[in-house]
Every structure is written in C-alpha cells, then in structure tokens.
Design a protein that fits this description.
Layout (H helix, E strand, L loop, with lengths): L1 H40 L1 H4 L3 E3 L5 E4 L59 H18 L26 E2 L1 H14 L4 H10 L1 E2 L10 E3 H13 L1
Antiparallel strand pairs: 1-2, 3-5, 4-5
Helix pairs in contact: 4-5
C-alpha cells in the first residue's frame, strides 16, 4: 500500500515538474525567442506591415485594402450607396461577405470572393456596371477612357475581397482624374504612380503592382507641398 502511494506521489511529482518545465519552455521562453527574432529581423512584417504618415501615425496596413469614398449625405441611411472620392486613387471593387460597423474604412466583416461562376448573369451585370462607372469616373476634359483600356482588376474583386494592390494599368487610367481633381500636373501624378510601382518578386514571380494606400499616402503629401 505504501509502495503504491509512493509511486503515485512520484508520478504526480514528475508530471507537475514536466508541466512546469514545458510551461516555461513552450509558454514563455519559446514565444519570447520567436518574438525577439521576429522584431529584430522582420520588424515590419511582425507588426502587421503598418503604413505610417510623416507624423508617425499608423494609417493602415500594406496588406489590407481600404476604400476612399465621399461622406454620405445621410450617414444613418444603410441604403445609400457609397460614392468614390474622385480626389483619390481607387482600389479594386470589394465584393466581400457582409458588412462591418466598426471598421468603416472597409465595409467587410468576412473576407471572400463572390463565388459566382464566370457566366453568372449577376456577375456579368456587376462587371458591366463597374466598367461603365470606371469609364465615366475617369474620363476628364482632356482624357477619354476607352472601353478596351479598362483592365480586369478595375471591375473585378480579388479572391479575398481585401486586395491592397491594383495593376499599373489601372493606376495609370486614374492619373488624369486625380491630377484634375487635385490641381496637379499630369506628369507629376504619373511619376508618383511610377515611384510607387513594385515590380515582380525576385524579377519573375507575380505581376507588377501598385499599393493603393501607399500611393494615396504619397499623394496626400504631394498635395500638402
């Protein structure tokens, strides 16, 4: 009987010691080590790829898209459609799943695609309407947008609905409208787009892209100068 109690006590003691050691190693030392390495070697990524303005204030993440809309005439009317602010470069359409009353900069509560087939009538109508809007919104007194110049990313959402990037072609299509709305020279805005264009990863992976938040942040600084 005493032997049984002693064995049980030793097993409990060994289990508690193992629990304590594993808790310290896996619950304290390992997370601290990983956090330290991440902060030292990948500080930007570890902190959410934050984008800050010149004052140091965080204005968003380079990984998540934002909308740039005009204020609603009636903020309490859920049926009122948001209208894009012509002063800013616009991102891809965001056809996500649901709405969000907390993050009003992006009306999504879940990320995801529309899950509509390529021949779905609703999707085709959505694309046709988006294309007509892109042409109308970006045609200025000195520049006419042709239907064949509208790139695919201007009228379709990404798989996540949160794509922060647009193609250089879509950014270039918006240059004249942005320049006109902000009383800027077209060449300056074209250079702004070029300076904020990222090439293919390692020179061959993916496609050239423009981060809309970074581009609009640079535009904001340009309009202040």
């Amino acid at each position: 009987m005493n032997t049984s109690v002693g064995n049980t006590a030793r097993l409990l003691g060994a289990g508690l010691r193992a629990l304590l050691v594993l808790t310290v190693v896996c619950g304290v030392l390992y997370p601290l080590a990983v956090t330290g390495i991440a902060q030292a070697l990948f500080n930007d990524n570890a902190n959410g790829s934050e984008i800050k303005d010149k004052s140091g204030q965080v204005i968003g993440s380079s990984l998540i898209g934002q909308t740039y809309n005009l204020p609603k005439a009636n903020p309490d009317d859920p049926e009122e459609a948001a209208k894009p602010d012509p002063k800013w470069f616009q991102p891809r359409p965001s056809n996500g799943l649901g709405s969000n009353s907390v993050n009003t900069r992006y009306s999504l509560i879940l990320s995801g695609a529309t899950n509509k087939a390529a021949d779905n009538p609703d999707l085709l109508k959505l694309i046709e309407d988006a294309k007509a809007a892109v042409i109308a919104d970006n045609t200025t007194k000195s520049y006419t947008v042709k239907p064949q110049d509208v790139p695919a990313d201007a009228v379709t959402s990404s798989g996540s609905g949160l794509d922060p990037n647009i193609s250089p072609a879509y950014a270039d299509l918006q240059v004249h409208r942005v320049a006109e709305q902000n009383d800027l020279d077209v060449k300056r805005v074209e250079k702004l787009v070029k300076d904020n264009t990222t090439g293919r990863t390692l020179g061959f992976m993916g496609e050239p892209r423009v981060n809309v938040l970074e581009l609009n942040s640079a535009l904001r600084e340009l309009t202040k100068s």
